[in-house]
Amino acid sequence: DLQICQHRAPTCCTKKMEESYLAAVRRERTQSIQALNFELKYMIVGHITAFQEAFESLLRFAENRTSSLLETAYRPMAKEAAEPVKELFTDITLYILGAETTVESAVLRFFDSLFPLVYSRLINPGITDLSEDYTECLRLTRQDINPFGHYSKNMVTELSKSLWASRMLSQALSLGIEVINTTEHAALSKECSRALVKMQYCPHCQGLTLIRPCVGYCLNVMRGCLASVSELDAQWREFISTLEYLTNEMAASHELEIALSGIWNSINEAILHAQLNGPQLSATVDKVCGQPKQQEGNLSSASIVPVKEVTETQTFVMAHTSLNNKRREFISYMKRSRTFYASIAERLCDGDLVMRDSSTCWNGEDVV
């Protein structure tokens, strides 16, 4: 009553043993594919973590630098500006990780929150009435009177160019993991399972427990079994090319590191621009939002303190170098995995599964 290991000679197998062999080949095939995938998956997961750590390090550095600027040059509003600064960098992090947000909305929301503080603490430091309505009016007016000149738009442009590649790379790496996980759990067809049993276990039914499959026979069986997986070859090669393009984009002229480290400078220039145009801004705001309550003997406008760009600190240089090195290592490894899905049958037939350098092997029917 055997269905797979039928043979003219006497056999020591039963139908129940064939069923055990079917379960064994399914389990073994999943384990062998997982073992092949392990190194590739380990490399991608490791680099997702490494990239994220480097991003976080750069973002923390840029956020601390921005907060220091406000503390040093714009002390009257530094404490109140801490929350908008934190929100800006949280939004940037979420954007890189693939959240449904845009760089433009994050930057403009930041400048909307900043304008009421710049107006009431630096341009007109005598204002005492910062009611919710008045603050909201200032936020909305910012969009119409553009107090920060071209600096807010420039910041959007610079960050959008550099953060886009980081966001795409982050999503691409997650997609790579998804593809690998899916191939690990691809179901084996009934024909494939039977062919594997015939190749690996039917010799046992003749008492030939030490004989192994011939190389050519193994390749034919594995290629048939993994036809759907090897079809991923063209898309996988394209995926590697896309990763290469994205890592090159990140390292190109609009570098993430430079854009992030320049945020504090863009904010500084924007505030200086607003202060220099203080009288005109005040006249427009008074017309739109009305005149707020002032302290007695209105204080003079806060003095403008231009901040010179500080030299790059060691932390930033280290994070910058670390990210560049990780990019190079990663893309070099991924390029070597271009043929991963094309050569999967060859790799599964390598090693202990087949008989090499021997005069006898199993061809599915007999020892040859």
UniProtKB/TrEMBL annotation:
<dbReference type="Pfam" id="PF01153">
    <property type="entry name" value="Glypican"/>
</dbReference>
<keyword id="KW-0472">Membrane</keyword>
<keyword id="KW-0732">Signal</keyword>
<keyword id="KW-1003">Cell membrane</keyword>
<comment type="function">
    <text>Cell surface proteoglycan.</text>
</comment>
<dbReference type="InterPro" id="IPR001863">
    <property type="entry name" value="Glypican"/>
</dbReference>
<keyword id="KW-0449">Lipoprotein</keyword>
<dbReference type="InterPro" id="IPR019803">
    <property type="entry name" value="Glypican_CS"/>
</dbReference>
<dbReference type="GO" id="GO:0090263">
    <property type="term" value="P:positive regulation of canonical Wnt signaling pathway"/>
</dbReference>
<keyword id="KW-0325">Glycoprotein</keyword>
<dbReference type="GO" id="GO:0098552">
    <property type="term" value="C:side of membrane"/>
</dbReference>
<keyword id="KW-0654">Proteoglycan</keyword>
<dbReference type="GO" id="GO:1905475">
    <property type="term" value="P:regulation of protein localization to membrane"/>
</dbReference>
<keyword id="KW-0357">Heparan sulfate</keyword>
<keyword id="KW-0336">GPI-anchor</keyword>
<dbReference type="GO" id="GO:0005886">
    <property type="term" value="C:plasma membrane"/>
</dbReference>
<dbReference type="GO" id="GO:0016477">
    <property type="term" value="P:cell migration"/>
</dbReference>
<dbReference type="GO" id="GO:0009986">
    <property type="term" value="C:cell surface"/>
</dbReference>
<comment type="similarity">
    <text>Belongs to the glypican family.</text>
</comment>
<protein>
    <submittedName>
        <fullName>GPC5 protein</fullName>
    </submittedName>
</protein>
<dbReference type="GO" id="GO:0005576">
    <property type="term" value="C:extracellular region"/>
</dbReference>
